[in-house]
Amino acid sequence: MKRTTIFIEPQLERELQALARRSGRPMAAIVREAVAQYVAADKARRPARLGFVASGRSGRSDIAERHEELLFQPDPPVTPPRPSTARRATRRRDQA
Questions:
Q1: What would you report as the CA-atom Rg of the chain, rounded to the nearest whole angstrom?
Q2: How far, rounded to the nearest angstrom, does the alpha carbon of residue 52 sit from its chain's CA centroid?
Q3: What is the 3-state secondary structure (H, E, C) of the chain?
Q4: CA 56 from chain center: how many Å?
Q5: Tens digit of pLDDT per residue, the chain (96 long)?
Q6: CB 27 within 8 A of CB 16
Q7: Of 20, 25, 27, 93, which sees the most CB atoms within 10 A?
Q8: Long-range Cβ pairs for the range 24-27 (8 Å, 24+)
């Protein structure tokens, strides 16, 4: 843990001290819990950002205008690449 200093109004400090006494917990534990809840709630409110957006170049200049067409068109069939002739020759030699 890292030590940190915060400034709070005197009235809020008195209320925090009273809460700590009533709950039998240190003020620091209550403040840590409150800050953790605040940060978690803020994180939940923020929309998730897509980390892959604009992460590469397509080589095309019309992507912005054609994005719907490009995103929603059916994918073309994928044919597996054929091994090059150099690899086939090596395989034949290895098998002999």
A1: 31
A2: 10
A3: CCCCCCCCCHHHHHHHHHHHHHHCCCHHHHHHHHHHHHHHHHHHHCCCCCCCCCCCCCCCCCHHHHHHHHHHCCCCCCCCCCCCHHHHHHHHHHHC
A4: 18
A5: 889 999 999 999 999 999 999 999 999 999 999 999 999 999 888 877 666 666 677 777 887 788 788 777 777 777 777 776 655 555 555 565
A6: yes
A7: 20
A8: none
Report the distance separating Cα 71 and Cα 68, nearest Å: 5
Contact assessment for residue 16 and residue 1, using Cβ atoms and an 8 Å cutoff: no
Written as one letter, the residue type at 55 is S
Q: Considering all CA atoms of the chain, what is the largest pairwise distance in Å, rounded to the nearest integer?
A: 89
- Is 52:59 a contact under the CB 8 Å cutoff? no
